[in-house]
Each structure stands twice: as structure tokens, then as C-alpha cells.
Amino acid sequence: MENKNNTYELITKKLTSSLSEEEKVLLDQVFTENTELAENYEILQKYWNHYFFKTYPNNILNKTEKKLGFKFGQNKNLSLKTVYSVAATILLILSLGFIGFQLLKQKPEVVLTNYYANNSIKNIVLSDGTNVWLNKGSILITSQPFTENRREVLLVGEGYFEVEKDETKPFYVKTAQLSTRVLGTHFNMASYPGTKNTEVTLYEGKVELTDAESTSNKVVLKPGERATFSKEDKNFFVKDVDISKPAAWRNGCIYFYDEDLFAIAQKLEFKFQTQIIIVDEEVGKLRFTADFDKETLEEILKLLSEAHAFDFTKTQDGIIINKAKKHIVPTTKNKRT
Amino acid sequence: MINDYHFKSGIAKSDQKKFKQLIEITSDELLLFAIGFVRNKEVAEEIVSDVYVKIWNNRSEIENILNLKSYLFICVRNGSLSYLRKAKNDPTISVESLSDYHFIPVEDNNNTPIEKETIDSIYSAIEELPAKCKLAFTLAKINGLKYSQIAEIMNISEKTVNNHLVNAVQKITEILNVKKRRTK
């Protein structure tokens, strides 16, 4: 009897996905000895994994709104555009310190220039020959032409830089969190307001990243490395990445290299101007390597969820991602790598 | 995610859009959970919307809630039981003394149907389970909650949750055996 109870406990744990590796071996053994039980388990498992509650339309949202006396969503979130203009203004104020100072002592033709890639990707050539691609919704602020001894730009959002070599005048890219000092290099930098991390990927040359708040906190990158700087704990995390497709977003492509779904969702939010909520923390930690070009948001999510199972639902306000209800055996880790 | 710091802090800062999303994510499950107690959709909708109203009115406290999902279930449980105490005029009704819980049959989600007859016998086995056992089974099967969350919601130990679930699984398996013998 003791034994029998134990078997059902193992079956229960298996259904609720709380079975340990050793217990799994035990249960498999029970199943080989008792084929009838194994058959019953098959049915039970089908029932557990494929039968779900049906949702009926309900009036809960309406009733809640009625009881509270207002309708939700009238104090709309700050739109992305507003967030950017606020961020840009703050950066502008911060930057007026140094650029403004330079402007004052410069020739009158030096102007503070504000590049804003509104709905499309923008390619800018700066006065020193440096090429910058600005991703959608991103802002670059600088004084043009560059002054005699300093090349400095401010970035909100994402940009890919091909910096013209000039050993005597280092090129600085500043964001709210980081100051990046470069000589002649190719690198991508993503620092979107509202996200947890600033990301710098180096394709050529050398860059030095410095925490804007503590100049002793710095890291030097080699080509093929990506630094992720956490805005919360101010730590740099450096790892090797595939650099065969520099800043694929410039061609409208989306490219993820071993990134978790939280980070991917943030990129998709910016790309598709929507909101994505990940309900289950475990799902948010799933990692993907994938690239996409012309796929729609739904197509991308569908392809990703085939690699690692998760469910997603489209709502009026965006996408809700939850853990998968049905079990799909992950076939391959990489989707069209 | 409903336990995510940013999500909770959004609601704490009166972000209505985030709160609306919380309702969208959780209301279906909470409605079914309440119907299990009160067996009336209208009444269940009232109970669940009262819970959201209470959370919105106390939104500045939301960040202190460790597990928002369990918390929502506990609020709905309390609302349902308090409705039953009034409706049945029985002040002793509590989760500990639960004598009745309704399991709402689930539907198959794609093309992996089990024979209708088999499914019916599974449901009859579930129907026969004691109320608390049925409740634990519902929370594990329908809501996919962890043992620790079920323990919190039912106000019992994880060991007891385990006992309830093992009991349910055993009863269902046994009915499948009986059915097989009959068809032989």
C-alpha cells in the first residue's frame, strides 16, 4: 500500500512538473513493470496537457470600471514619443553644460544639431566623416561641425557608428548611463529609456566604456564582444557574440543572439510600437538566437514559440505572453540562425 | 508579468493601462474559481470585480504583495465564502470546513481528444472527490498553480496539498481501470 501510494505521488508530481530526475527513473521503472498503469497515465497526461478551461465573455472589466466610476486607459501611458522627448530634453539640459560652453567660444557657424529618426532609420554623416545609423525613434544630439579638439555626441535609443579614425581626437558617445570613448571603430549601441540595460557591441577596433556616475567603473571591449551595462546595479557584463551581421536592424532585420525573452520583448516593443507583457518569469528567461527580416510581430512570436514553447495572446493594448499550456518538445534551440 | 516589479510599480503609480492588463490576464481564471464556490456567473462577476476595485483603491500597497496571483485568489476565495455565509445564512462556512466545490469541465484544446466515454468517466471521478480535494485539483490542473501557492490559497500545508492531489490522481486512475475491465 505504501508503495502504491508512492507511485501515485510520483504520477502526480510528473503531471505538475515537479518530478526530480531520480524520481523520473523510478517512475519509468514502475511503468515498464506495470503496463496497465502506464496506459492509464498516458490518458491522464493527455487530459492534463490538452484539456483547458473555456473562457466565457464576462463583464468583469465593465463592472470594475462602473464601481470605480471611470473608464480605464483615459490617462494613457506616456507614449514612446513623449518618453523620448522628455529624455531628449533632459539630455539636452545635461549636455548644454559642455556643448553650450563650447558653442559660446566657437565660431558662429557651429550649431547644436538634433537628429531624430522618427519613423524610419536615418543615416547621418558627421563633419569628421563618421557614419551613424539611427534606429527608429532614436535621437542623436551633437554640435556640428565638431570643434577642433573634441568629437562628442549624445545618444538616446540605438545607433550604429562607423567612426572615422583620428588618434588625436577621441570620439565620445554619451548616454544617460555611459560614456563610450572610441578611436576608429565600428560598434552598435543601444540605450533605450525605460529598459534595464545599455548594450554595446563592438565589430572593429577598440572602445572604452565608462560608467557616467563613477569614472573608475569602466571596461574595454575587443571586437566580437558585447557589453551589457545594467542600469540598476551598474555592472558590466561582457560576452562573445556573433558579429557577422553588424546592426542588422539597419536593413529592417531583427537579430537576437542568445538573448532572453525579456530583452527580446523590449526590442520588439520598440520595433512594432506596442506593449508586450510577459506574465511568467520562467518564460521571460528563455533564451533565443534568431533573425527575422520582413516577418510581422505575430509571425515572429509564433516562430520563437516553436523553438521554446510559450503562449501569446493579442489584446487591444498589445501582446500578453504566458507559459505554454500544451507541451511542445523543443526541436531546435536556434531558429534560422 | 504579474509579479514583476515594474508591473506592480506601474499600478502603484496609477497606471490604468497596466491595471487593465492585470484584469485581462487574471479575470477569466478568477471568475471560474469564484463560480466553483458560488455556482452563479453573475454573482461570481460581482465578487471578482469587487476584488479589483479593492486592489485599485489600495494600489499604493500593491508593491508589498509578494505573490500577486495567490493574493488575488485569496481575495476571491474570501469574497466567495463571505457571500456563501450570507446566502446560506451559515456563519460557520470557511475554507477549512468546505463541503462543496464545483469543478468546471475543461475542453480539449486541439486535436488530441480522448474518447468521450473516457472523459466522462474522468469527470465522474472528479465529481466524486471530497470538496477540498476537488479544490486542490482545480487549482493545480486549471490554474497551473504550484503546491506552495495552493497551500497559501487553501490555508493548508504543502504536504496536505500533496495528499489531496495524490488522492485525486489515484481516484481518476482507478476509474480508468474499472472502465477498462468493463470493456474487456
Describe this structure in words.
The complex is a heterodimer of chains A (337) and B (184). With 337 residues, chain A is α+β, with helices and mostly antiparallel strands. Chain A folds into three domains: 2-50, no CATH class; 79-251, Jelly Rolls; 253-337, Phage tail protein beta-alpha-beta fold (3-Layer(bab) Sandwich), CATH 3.55.50. Chain A has eight helices and 20 strands. In chain A, strands 2, 3, 4, 5, 6, 7, 8, 9, 10, 11, 12, 13 and 14 form a 13-stranded mixed β-sheet that branches. Chain A has a three-stranded mixed β-sheet with strand order 15-17-20. In chain A, a hairpin with a 5-residue loop joins strand 13 and strand 14. Chain A is elongated. Mean pLDDT of chain A is 78; it is low at 75-79 and 327-337. The longest helix of chain B is centred in the last third of the chain and has 26 residues, at 158-183. Chain B has helices spanning 5-12, 16-38, 41-57, 68-87, 116-128, 131-141, 147-154, 158-183, and one strand at 107-108. Chain B folds into two domains: 5-87, Rna Polymerase Sigma Factor, Chain: A; 116-183, Winged helix-like DNA-binding domain superfamily/Winged helix DNA-binding domain (Arc Repressor Mutant, subunit A). In chain B, helix 1 crosses helix 2, helix 6 (131-141) crosses helix 8 (158-183) and helix 7 packs across helix 8. Chain B is mostly helical and 184 residues long. The chains are: A alpha+beta (337), B mainly alpha (184). Strand 1 (51-52) of chain A pairs antiparallel with strand 1 (107-108) of chain B.
